[in-house]
Design brief:
Strand content: under 5%
Shape: flat
Distance between the termini: 74 Å
Number of strands: 4
Number of helices: 67
Low-confidence stretches: 42-59, 174-209, 274-323, 1049-1058, 1410-1417
Helix content: 40-55%
Largest sheet: 2 strands, antiparallel
Mean pLDDT: 82
Structural class: mainly alpha
Length: 1417
């Protein structure tokens, strides 16, 4: 037998096998057939394998038996159908190559044989002339040649219907070989469905025509394929009729479980159109409306056949739900269609549904959430409101009966191709955004509208709409973007506070960056080279990611500024759009200094703004509302420049010099507002903004030459103050704002002039070092204003008696007070300062102005509004706050004028702040004047306000920070005034503890930019002995007496803390100056911030770099600042060296710093407990644990151990111990468990059995805390039980907190039992935990509670092992334990013998055990 070739065969083996095959004479598996190459002109050749007559080689064709002609399909895809394949005639024995050569279109077929035909004898026939057009015109009247649209299915063109009619005509011709019976349906035949359809209940047989619809028979290949298919179909029908309904359902279930769901859907989709197309022609005409709705027809047909209903009940239910109402018929149409009308020969129900009458809206309220719908003004339309249709709020979308548009529909309309729809949608969205910002939807809508819109992609929608080529759509997009970004009330409030103390400064409106903190944590382990810069990270982010974190930054990334520049420069839109763009740019500039820089750097943007909207010359407008504002000065453009100048001194210098703003300020301010050829309101507004911009520039020491040039105009304006402020003037509010801006300008000019002498001296002594140049204005330029300003102030104080002028006087007096404060503050630093004359002048000022002002009834009534106007003391009011999103912060000012607050005219904050600053300045110059102002601090509204502030807990956010900053200024100046009066005024000294408490509370509240205030409070009040009155009025002695009384009441031994806490407090009071130096040293890293804040607070304008405050990331000092020296030492040594350094190896002064820190903490815990309430008890415990983790023996130092004992005693008092929740993670730590693990490791390493450290470790082992900490002690650190020798007397925590309730953790109980039985835990080594383990094991083994089998088995096992213990003492302790008891030596009480119920349980357990042993034997 021949074998197959193997891979290992050599060439000789293959030749040998070939020889054996040839000699055997066996037939080959494949035969070689030679075919002629017709493309080369070869004629037929034989199959013998010889060459043709020309000697050319023939092609070898290898044929294999049983090889199919077509390759099998690799995927179960449906076979492709070709319209042309069916028309081809093929024969079974035809050769594939010949068929290929016959249809070959290769270029060689044409080029090999080119034979020119002989056309000399060919007849030529000319086309016949005819009157018919070509192609033939089709008339609509020729409808007989078209098939009915319903039979075609769907909407078909006229041409398609003609083709369908032609095919129908051809189909009626009899096919070759078919019988007549197969062409005409029998009269009693019903329609069937799919391949499972059968006759109706009468048992009628299916017709020949109603064959299978899924199986066509095309793949059979035989001449009678259709007959074979029909025969199979009839067999299937016969089988189905022979089966019962239950059998059919069972087989159908099996099929559906085996088939692919997609195949099932395909079969049903093939069935649905066939059912619709087989409508019987004998239906009456009155069912026409039913025919027009195929879905109803299908449902009714299936419901008429019981077998179909049974086969597909789910489909029937689904289809019935889809038909909620009857379809409109031709008779219901308001206008009957005519036959000649185009495309009206078929009713389209889905398009005619909107012609029905709308259903009535919902009449009853429902708790179910409904989609919000808005009208074009953005007003929410209630679902029960029935509005008329002529308002245009009804449409053909979802819920057509409800008026209004949903947000989804507005989004869809905004991308419409119809211009009016796009404009209307964007305008409606703008109105919705404006109302959402005002908080009008909070009470009626669930969730935030602005957040929903931003999440849906509103930002990208508006940015795309800005690129629209239609100006109307572009204008609507600008208006919507303005509504999203800008809050008009926010800008109004910022303008009103501009003239307050440091009102020109503001926080950048940056979102809180949590994402950046996460990115910094990811980069912690990388090298500096590997870390990505912030710019690289920003470039990698997509537009969506950037906009999701920060809306303004996302718009900048989407090239908003160049587009706005194009609209202003090229499109030149209407005045409203220009105003909207200027407000958008102002909001962008408020975002951050980088955004303001981008606005300045945008090509041609600033040039266009300055040249078009701040021209140096213009003509008077012909109308009040001109069609264009180009070429006219705009107040909003000047305000934009002011906000840009606030971002930094360099930006301000660019505006003044490069863009020519200095000339424009001179042009606008050199004339009176009435002479500016502008509308009076616009003239007052733009001059007010010009004064404010100049104020910002003067705050940097810039634009001083302009003051010298415009001095006559400024003096003229000041002299006419009383003539301008007429109560009957309709523009009185604008006049007041203009005068306040002018006073703020003069205040900044005075500060700048006061620095001239210092800068001049510094430039002389600098000797080449960098020093700011002195300003052009000197002190002599501003001294002439003082008398004029003082006279104005006296006049306004007198005007307080006039009710008509009272409000305007109260509005301007704070600005005059701030000017006088700046004047006297700078006067005391000048060489021309004359002390005697100044002191006399201050006495006159006090007696003639300040005291009458302070005692006036109008001012007293204002002071009574302190608490109601306060932001710190504000309880959550009834009004709803406006919508603010995290990525688009705002000030939440909508509705500010209708509720109490700091900005309303009834607020005393601007007046009291200006008065307090002036009093602090003049009392520092004239020490004897302080006693005259004690009444301010002793006023009941002021005292009550401070007490309320001490109890408050203000939250930090953009919505509150801009106001909290001004309130903190008032609290600071009141405390500074108290600092001057407490040592000399006994009445004020009575409230020293209140002022000290206020200072401690205010310190961690101060915001970025107020570092100088924090430094001053720490330097003056916080560590002052005068404000800790308990330290020198018997406070330590009172503490000692209280502790001794507690000792007599408890009658048990005490820890060292009870005997030394009084002495420790006395020592802490002595060391207060050293404690202050210690804390100031540890805050030295804030030195640069303190200096920058000092320059801004004291008005050192040439040194100020920016009026934009630092980013609002949190308070200046952390809330746990009293622990700062301890935490700092731990970060320097405990983390890096693992707490293994000895005291001698610690940084110099570390021991003293820790001692001072603990002294200060002890003092606060005893006398200022309220100030530490902001720190969680678990945070206190975690911070104090650094004493043990910083060093290997720091806690053993005598002063440290005494102070820590005292603090531990205070932290473990009954009420404080209840509030200590160790399950809450301390700030800065993932969990307390991690810290406790480090404490256990440190205790094992360096504790030496220290009792203080032992108490610290025992504290978290109380029963109410997490089991994981007790498992750590008895599991991983069980060795520490040998040295944990804290006695019950030394432990200041009641033992019942460790033993009650009984332990329910089975693993921990097993560890308790194991440590007791193995001798790891003994009473002599660890008395506390010995008693704890004894109590829990005893409760467990004698528990009568029902438990799981595993727990019950563990109880029996422990009880048996205890019974057979050889250690009698331990055995008796475990069995006879009763309760913990303090007055016995062991600390617990025992039974003399087992109680009856316990004895019975022991006998039952031992009896069961013995019986099991006997059975085993």
């Amino acid at each position: 037998m021949l074998r197959r070739p193997q891979p290992s065969d050599s060439e000789a083996d293959l030749l040998r096998e070939q020889e054996r095959f040839l000699t055997s004479g066996a037939l080959s598996a494949a035969s070689v057939v030679r075919r002629p190459d017709k493309r080369r002109g070869e004629t037929g050749a034989t199959e013998s394998g010889h060459n043709d007559e020309n000697g050319e080689n023939q092609k070898d064709v290898v044929t294999i038996e049983d090889l199919p002609d077509q390759l099998p399909s690799l995927t179960p895809a449906p076979p492709k159908k070709s319209r042309f394949k069916a028309s081809r005639v093929t024969f079974e024995d035809e050769d594939a190559e010949e068929r290929l050569d016959r249809h070959d279109t290769h270029i060689s077929t044409v080029l090999s044989r080119i034979v020119e035909r002989d056309t000399s004898c060919a007849p030529v026939s000319l086309p016949a002339f005819t009157s018919l057009a070509f192609p033939k015109v089709l008339h609509r009247s020729e409808t007989s040649a078209q098939v009915a649209p319903s039979s075609v299915g769907g909407k078909k063109s006229i041409f398609a219907r003609q083709i369908a009619a032609q095919r129908l005509k051809e189909a009626k011709k009899p096919l070759h070989g078919s019988s007549d019976a197969s062409q005409t349906p029998q009269p009693g035949v019903t329609d069937t469905h799919m391949d499972t359809d059968h006759g109706d209940a009468a048992g009628e047989q299916p017709s020949v025509h109603s064959g299978p619809r899924l199986v066509s028979g095309q793949g059979l290949g035989g001449p009678d394929s259709s007959g074979e298919t029909l025969r199979i179909h009839r067999e299937n029908q016969a089988k189905l009729q022979a089966m019962s309904q239950s059998e059919i359902v069972e087989e159908q279930r099996k099929l559906l479980s085996q088939l692919d769901p997609r195949l099932v859907e395909f079969v049903r989709s093939r069935k649905a159109p066939s059912v619709l197309s087989l409508a019987p022609s004998s239906k009456p005409l009155e069912d026409k409306s039913r025919k027009e709705d195929p879905l109803l027809e299908n449902v009714s047909r299936e419901s008429s056949n019981p077998s179909v209903l049974f086969e597909q009940p789910q489909e029937v239910e689904m289809e019935e739900e889809l038909v909620p109402k009857p379809v409109m018929t031709e008779e219901e149409l308001p206008v009957k269609p005519q036959k000649e009308w185009v495309h009206m020969d078929k009713l389209e129900p889905d398009k005619l549904e909107w012609m029905r009458d709308l259903p009535a809206p919902r009449r009853k309220a429902t708790k179910k959430a409904m989609q919000a719908r808005f009208d074009f003004a953005g007003t929410l339309i209630p679902p029960t409101e029935d509005l008329p249709t002529h308002l245009g709020l009804h449409h053909h979308g979802e819920e057509p009966e409800r008026a209004g548009y949903s947000l989804q529909e507005l989004f869809l309309l905004s991308r419409s191709q119809v211009i009016q729809q796009r404009s209307l949608a964007l305008s409606t969205l703008a109105n919705i955004l404006s109302k959402a910002r005002a908080g009008e939807y909070l009470s009626v809508l669930k969730g935030s509208v602005i957040s929903t819109l931003l999440d849906a992609g509103l930002l990208f929608l508006l940015r795309f709409a800005l690129d629209d080529g239609v100006e109307g759509v572009m204008s609507a997009a600008v208006h919507a973007l303005k509504a999203l970004l800008v809050c008009t009330e926010d800008e109004e409030c910022l303008d009103l506070t501009f003239s307050w103390f440091r009102g020109l400064a503001s926080f950048p409106l940056l979102p809180f960056s949590q994402e950046e903190e996460e990115e910094e944590e990811e980069d912690e382990g990388l090298d500096e080279i590997m870390k990505e810069t912030a710019k690289e990270k920003e470039e990698k982010k997509s537009d969506y990611d950037v906009a999701w974190q920060d809306v303004v930054k996302g718009l900048m990334k989407m090239k908003l500024l160049p587009r706005l520049r194009y609209i202003l420069e090229v499109v030149r839109p209407s005045p409203r759009v220009v105003q909207d763009i200027l407000q958008i740019l102002t909001r962008v500039a408020r975002h951050s200094s980088s955004s303001a820089t981008q606005v300045l750097d945008c090509p041609r943007l600033m040039e266009t703004l300055v040249s078009e909207f701040l021209p140096t010359s213009w003509a008077a407008s012909a109308s009040l509302k001109p069609q264009s504002v180009y070429g006219h000065p705009l107040a909003s453009a000047m305000k934009l420049l002011r906000v840009l100048a606030t971002s930094g001194r360099h930006a301000c210098a660019r505006l003044l010099t490069s863009l020519g703003v200095r000339e424009r300020l001179s042009c606008l301010l050199s004339a009176e507002p009435s002479e500016l050829l502008l509308e009076s309101t616009e003239a007052l507004s733009i001059t007010t903004e010009a004064f404010r911009l100049w104020t910002v520039a003067a705050g940097y020491g810039q634009a001083c030459k302009l003051y010298i040039d415009l001095y006559p105009a400024l003096v003229k304006t000041l002299q006419a103050v009383h003539q301008i402020l007429l109560p009957s003037d309709t523009l009185l509010v604008l006049q007041l704002q203009r005068l306040s801006a002018l006073l703020s300008l003069l205040t900044q000019i005075t500060h700048t002039a006061g620095c001239h002498q210092e800068l001049h001296a510094g430039m002389v002594s600098a000797q080449g070092e960098e020093c700011p140049p002195p300003p052009l204005v000197s002190w002599g330029h501003v001294t002439g204003l003082h008398a004029l300003m003082l006279g104005h102030l006296k006049g306004f104080v007198k005007n307080l008696d006039n009710p008509v002028q009272r409000d305007s006087s109260l509005a301007l007096i704070p600005a005059y007070l701030l000017y006088l404060e700046a004047y006297y503050h700078q006067l005391s630093r000048q060489n021309c300062f004359k002390p005697v004359e100044t002191l006399q002048e201050l006495e006159l000022l006090t007696s003639e102005v300040l005291l009458p002002l302070l005692c006036h009834s109008a001012v007293q009534s204002l002071m009574r509004n302190l608490r109601s106007s306060s932001v710190v003391c504000a309880v959550q009011s009834g009004h709803l706050a406006p919508e603010i999103t995290s990525n688009l912060p705002g000030l939440a000012c909508p509705g500010w004028s209708g509720r109490p607050g700091m900005i309303v005219p009834s607020s005393p904050f601007p007046l009291l702040t200006g008065l307090g600053l002036l009093l602090e300045t003049i009392t520092s110059i004239h020490k004897g004047l302080g006693g005259k102002f004690t009444g301010l601090l002793l006023l009941e509204p002021v005292i009550g306000y401070m007490r309320s502030c001490c109890q408050a807990k203000p939250t930090l956010s953009h919505t509150r920070a801009w106001l909290l900053r001004h309130e903190y200024h008032l609290l600071y100046v009141l405390l500074q005034l108290a600092h001057r009066l407490v040592p000399t005024e006994p009445e004020v000294a009575k409230h020293a503890s209140l002022y000290h408490q206020m200072a401690l509370v205010l310190l961690p509240w101060l915001l970025p930019g107020s570092e100088y205030l924090a430094h001053e409070l720490l330097s003056t009040i916080v560590f002052s002995k005068d404000f800790i009155s308990e330290g020198h009025s018997g406070g330590p002695e009172a503490i000692e007496l209280g502790e001794l009384k507690l000792h007599e009441d408890t009658r048990h031994h005490t820890s060292p803390s009870l005997q030394t806490i009084g002495a420790l407090l006395r020592e802490a009071c002595i060391q207060l100056p050293s404690i202050r130096d210690c804390f100031l040293t540890h805050l030295a890293h804030l030195e640069l911030s303190v200096l920058a804040s000092r320059d801004a607070f004291l008005g050192r304008s040439p040194w100020i770099n920016s009026h934009l405050l630092p980013e609002l990331t949190g308070p200046t000092l952390p809330s746990d600042w009293p622990f700062l020296p301890l935490i700092s030492l731990y970060e320097r040594t405990g983390v890096s060296d693992g707490g293994g350094l000895a005291v001698e190896e610690l940084p110099q002064g570390a021991l003293q710093a820790v001692t001072h820190c603990l002294q200060w903490l002890l003092l606060l815990e005893v006398w200022r407990e309220e100030s530490l309430k902001v720190i969680l008890p678990v945070a206190k415990l975690a911070r104090l644990s650094c004493v043990f983790l910083c060093s290997s023996d720091l806690f053993l130092e005598r002063p440290v151990q005494k102070l820590t004992w005292g603090l531990f005693r205070l932290l473990t008092r009954g009420s404080r111990l209840d509030s200590l929740d160790l399950n809450v993670p301390p700030p800065g730590l993932a969990s307390f468990q991690d810290l406790y693990t480090a404490l256990l490791a440190q205790y094992e390493a360096v504790s030496f059995g220290d009792r203080l450290f032992g108490c610290w470790v025992l504290l978290p082992l109380q029963r109410r805390y997490s089991t994981s900490m007790r498992l750590a002690v008895f599991g991983e650190h069980v060795g520490m039980l040998r040295s944990l020798g804290v006695t019950l007397e030394q432990l200041t925590i009641p033992i019942e907190r460790f033993t009650s309730p009984p332990e329910d953790s089975l693993p921990l109980l097993r560890l308790y039992f194991r440590s007791l039985v193995t001798g790891t835990l003994k009473f002599s080594w660890c008395p506390v935990l010995y008693l704890v383990a004894l109590s829990h094991v005893n409760s467990f083994i004698f528990s009568q509670d029902a438990a799981a089998q595993e727990v019950e088995a563990a109880r029996h096992s422990m009880l048996r092992k205890i019974y057979y213990l050889t250690d009698e003492v331990l055995r008796n302790h475990l069995l006879l334990f009763r309760l913990p008891k303090h007055d016995v030596q062991l600390g617990f009480d025992t039974y003399e013998k087992l109680p009856t119920i316990r004895a019975k349980r022991l006998e039952s357990v031992l009896g069961v055990h013995d019986s099991k042993d006997n059975k085993g034997d």
